[in-house]
Amino acid sequence: MTGTTVVHLLRHGEVHNPGGVLYGRLPGYRLSDAGEQMAVRAADWFAGRDVVHLVSSPLERAQQTARPLAKAFGLEVATDERIIEAGNAFEGLVVGGGGGVFRAPRNWWRLRNPFQPSWGEPYVEIAARMIAAVEAARDAARGHEAVLVSHQLPIWTTRLHVEGRRFVHDPRRRECSLASVTSLTYDGDRFVGVSYAEPAGPTDPDAVPGA
């Protein structure tokens, strides 16, 4: 099958998180007021594009980020468990700062293998489920564009995979700001390139990874 299809991976907006925890897949974490504005700015960025298919992670912050897009394009929001946030053993704990989990010796054993990583869902499994979801969206939007609203680590892992780069990385160097768009372009089934945009501007590199 031929024709150009673009699958956009949209990261959700800023989350209300006064405790500064790594919230992961925990329920109850919704967009902040600023995050809701980020979602609107992301939807504005897509104005005039040929978006015909919209999918979101089941988590509330992603669903909220998808709503302005759904309204703008008159689309239903499908939900796909495959694009959910990565599993993490430190979920619900404070990661950064003086009281972060990395300072406690009892947690060091979880850091034994950064290549897997040993503290959470393996990168290869994240990449596999994300690519499956991307290809499903590509097939649903043949010749047009699709948007998948997901999370930082799954999106970044997908980019590393399609670009043939190693999965192990410094979380502070991920090019995946809040409400950013990582776009994968296909010619038929063949991946041909990736582009990146920040409709809501850059995110502080010291922000909690995955937040």
Roughly what percent helix? Answer: 25-40%
CATH class wording: Alpha Beta
Reported for the largest beta sheet, the result is: 6 strands, mixed
H/E order of the elements? EHEHEHEHEE
Average pLDDT metric: 90
**Which radius of gyration do the C-alpha atoms yield?**
17 Å
Specify the number of helices. 4
From the spread of the alpha carbons, the general shape counts as: globular
Tally of domains: 1
Number of strand elements? 6
Residues in β-strands, percent: 15-25%
- Report the uncertain regions: none
- Give me the secondary-structure category: alpha/beta
Task: Examine the secondary-structure arrangement and name the CATH architecture.
Answer: 3-Layer(aba) Sandwich
Keywords: Isomerase
GO cellular component, one term: cytoplasm
Organism: Blastococcus saxobsidens (strain DD2)
Enzyme class: isomerase
Which helices and strands occur, and which strands form pairs?
Blueprint: E1 4-11, H1 33-45, E2 51-56, H2 60-73, E3 78-79, H3 123-140, E4 145-150, H4 152-162, E5 181-187, E6 190-197
Parallel strand pairs: 1-4, 2-3, 2-4
Antiparallel strand pairs: 1-5, 5-6
